[in-house]
Every structure is written in structure tokens, then in C-alpha cells.
Write a structure and sequence with these properties.
Layout lengths: L1 E4 L4 E4 L2 H4 L5 H14 L59 H17 L3 E4 L9 H10 L5 E5 L4 H7 L5 E5 L5 H6 L2 E5 H11 L1
Parallel strand pairs: 3-6, 4-5, 4-6
Antiparallel strand pairs: 1-2
Helix pairs in contact: 2-3, 4-5
Subunit structure: Part of the 50S ribosomal subunit.
Protein name: Large ribosomal subunit protein uL4
Pfam families: Ribosomal_L4
């Protein structure tokens, strides 16, 4: 299987096992949901009636006052009482094994190639960390909403992209499925493709 390299007008041979997979929507959905769940903080917490501060004494006697009966100052129906179904900290992470995760990435990359949304460059870098330079470079190839994948993070490229909402720069080691499907196009360097084949094989 061959991919066109845009800047050198050459071709790059890649593994069909990795970049020629069928689209597996169910697997991708499962991995994306699990990845999103793992990013949740899960740190919110409230106090129920047993945890909130206050006396344990009965506010007034059961009968004879004419008032509604009450057993605790900490009742959820009282002001400054506990919360009825208090939220607690919890771990939302879901287990996804390596085979599933790699399979989802292979499926996403294969679909990007089929839709001609994966553009390969021999080298994609900037001489200085200027956002304007990156914007011009992307305008030359008629791209706006783009993820740039490199073998190693290019500092100039990373700094130039920080102020652009529709552009992100990642290396292949920090790649995640949500970033891959969130952008319209993906620019990837030849070095990143080779490293990706090592990781996913």
C-alpha cells in the first residue's frame, strides 16, 4: 500500500495491515467513550445527613407542640441540612485493552486515508515560532481545521499553533482517538508514519 508524499512528490510504502483496515464503528465508539470517561475528574462531593455538621438532638418533643414532628436538625428538608442523594467522588475510567485501542486507531487511520483526509509530508516545520507563518503555510495547502502529527514535537510548530483554535500539534506518542476524529484533516510526517507502524504493529 502506498501513500503520496505531498512536499516531495514521492510515494511512501505503508503496511496494509495497519492502514488498510475496515471501518469498525462499534470499536471506535467504545474506545472513544472509554477515553472520554477516563478524562472525567470525578472529584465533586456533597455531604449527606450523616456527614453534615449539626447536633444529633431531636429539635422538639414528638407531640404536644402543634408543630410538625422533627427528628433531626440535619434532615435534608431543613435549611443547612444534608443532601438527600449526595454526590460522591468516583472513578469513571473504563478498561480498554491494548488490542482494542490499537485496533481503533488503525481503523480511524484507514478511514482517514479512504476519505483522503490524511496528508503525508516528508518534513513539516517552521523556522520561527510565529503563528502567522503557520497560518500562511496551511493556506498554501488549503487547510484550516487540522491536526499535525510529528515523530517528535517541533517547538516552533507547537508554539505557533497554540493560539489557533482549529490547529493542534501532537507527537505520535501522545496521540489519542478523540484528536484524530475531531479534526477535518490530519497532516502526518514520514517519520511519524514509520513510528506509528512500530507502535501499532
Amino acid at each position: 500500500m502506498e501513500l503520496a508524499v505531498k512536499d516531495t512528490q514521492s510515494v511512501l510504502s505503508v503496511s496494509r495491515i495497519i492502514f488498510g483496515r475496515d471501518f469498525n464503528e462499534g470499536l471506535i465508539h467504545q474506545v472513544v467513550v472509554a477515553y472520554s470517561a477516563g478524562n472525567r475528574q470525578g472529584t465533586r462531593a456533597q455531604k449527606n445527613r450523616s456527614e453534615v455538621s449539626g447536633s444529633g438532638r431531636k429539635p422538639w418533643r414528638q407531640k404536644g407542640t402543634g408543630r410538625a414532628r422533627a427528628g433531626s436538625f440535619r434532615s435534608p428538608i431543613w435549611r443547612s441540612g444534608g443532601v438527600t442523594f449526595a454526590a460522591k467522588t468516583q472513578d469513571h475510567s473504563q478498561k480498554v485493552n491494548k488490542k482494542m485501542y490499537r485496533g481503533a486507531l488503525k481503523s480511524i487511520f484507514s478511514e482517514l486515508i479512504r476519505q483522503k483526509r490524511l496528508i503525508v509530508f516528508e518534513n513539516f516545520s517552521l523556522n520561527s515560532p510565529k503563528t502567522n507563518l503557520l497560518v500562511k503555510k496551511l493556506q498554501e495547502i488549503n487547510l484550516k481545521n487540522v491536526l499535525i502529527l510529528t515523530n517528535k514535537i517541533d517547538n516552533n510548530l507547537f508554539l505557533a499553533s497554540r493560539n489557533l483554535y482549529s490547529v493542534d500539534v501532537k507527537d505520535v506518542h501522545s496521540l489519542d482517538p478523540i484528536s484524530l476524529i475531531a479534526f477535518e484533516n490530519v497532516i502526518i510526517t514520514v517519520g511519524a508514519v514509520k513510528k506509528l507502524e512500530e507502535i501499532l504493529s
